Amino acid sequence: MKNSIKTMLSLAIAFVIYSPLAKAQNTPNSLNQPGYYHMALGDFEVIALSDGTTPQKLNELLTDAKPGEVEHLLKQHYQASTIECSVNAYLVKANGKLILIDAGTSDVYGPALGHITESLNKAGYKPEQIDAILLTHIHMDHIGGLMNGDKIAFPNATVYISKIEADYYLNPANKAKAVESAKRFFDGAEQKLRPILIAGKLRTFDFGGELFPGITPVAGFGHTPGHSFYAIESKGEKMLFLGDILVSDAVQLPEPSITSVYDYDAGQAATTRKKALAEAATAGYWVGVSHISFPGIGHIRADGKGYIWVPINYSASGRGQ
């Protein structure tokens, strides 16, 4: 009888101790945390890195549209006027180097964003391993992650930016002439890029040649004065990183003339977008886009007078086709 009582007490104690643990282990996680996505491109490897997502009111962000046009196009794609906008960066493994395209936001926009380092770690890499960072342009969702407070976040990386872009945003005279809403971009350059320059780690480039074997900057002006695309090519395969020349596949692919309130020169941005989309659709190469739903990799396909987005096919092996 005593043994039976002991057994029952032991079972009761075990239940009290272990049932919360079991319950915790079986509690579903309602948050999607993709973090990173691998893709092979010839001998190169591309790893999309998620900085997070943030709500964007596309009916306010997108301009040069007919009344109700943005809402209509969004509805056709089963999207509301406010969507969760991805912030993507890309790690390219090429010729023994680790090259990051854009650096995310760090703590600039709060806890929903700023996860590039976390995603990089999940993918198996550390900030100290990055050899180079290629910036598409000087907006905080692309350069914010260059600094952690007053420390350089990627201490061994050389940062590359077009000379046109750097000369414009690092010139106080240009800030003085800018409209009030654009002055924060100059402040961002001072906070995040000036320390890189002072440390001797900033390199500017002119367009017309490779930065690394198989990696070439391409002029993509309009969103900012010196906005850059980056083309990577290996064994006959190509991917073009478009930065912010395309911010909504649902709206700007069917109607490439629709622009963004953040465009420095909206007319030039629209012209650049039309040219880039036409080339990508005709040639059939991959594109990587900073704000299309993670991982932001896919193809552009012609569709009537516009285009449609064909996202990468999910692949556990990393081939993607």
UniProtKB/TrEMBL annotation:
Residues 86-285 form the Metallo-beta-lactamase domain. InterPro entries: MBL_superfamily_lactonases (IPR051013), Metallo-B-lactamas (IPR001279), RibonucZ/Hydroxyglut_hydro (IPR036866). It comes from the Bacteria. The keyword NADP does not apply. It holds the Pfam family Lactamase_B. SMART domains: Lactamase_B. Residues 1-24 form the signal peptide. GO terms for molecular function: hydrolase activity; metal ion binding. Keywords: Hydrolase, Metal-binding, Signal, Zinc. Belongs to the metallo-beta-lactamase superfamily. This is Metallo-beta-lactamase superfamily protein.
